[in-house]
Amino acid sequence: MIWLGNFVTAEEASKNYESKKLEFKELVMAKSAKNVQISEKSDQESCVTDEFEEKSSMSVDENINTSNGVEESDEELMMGTWVKISENQEVKYSHKLGVPIVDNYGFLLGEFSVLDDLRIYM
Asked: How far apart are CA 103 and CA 105, in angstroms?
């Protein structure tokens, strides 16, 4: 929602609304035109990129197969192991994802179990 201001008459408000509407349409059209130019440029480069991706994916597959002979899937890595954090609470610990702060039921765990202790920054 955008605040357009206070107006004495409905006509003033309508004019201001229409001018802002046109301004936004022009911005959208300019951005879409820019996106079209970018997509046309990327289409020209896609042939080179596809060839590079094929070669790089082949080398990655070769590295995975020769690393240790055993390949772990994402599902296995995310399953993790159960770790006891208190007498009656356990959490799944994943080597890939670490220890969660929220259990399977949406409750906070461990040191975050009291909302007063929880701080989320964005």
From this structure: 5
- Do 86 and 68 touch, CB atoms closer than 8 A? no
Predicted TM-score (pTM) of the model is 0.30
Rounded to an integer, what distance in angstroms lies between the CA atom of residue 101 and that of residue 71? 29
DSSP string, 93-112: EBTTTB--SB-TTS-B-GGG
Cα–Cα distance for residue pair 18/75, rounded to 1 Å: 53
Provide block-wise average pLDDT over 10 residues at a time, the chain (122 residues): 76 86 86 75 57 51 49 62 73 64 68 62 72
Q: What Cα–Cα distance (Å) separates residue 57 from each residue in 14, 47, 60, 68?
A: 57, 16, 5, 18
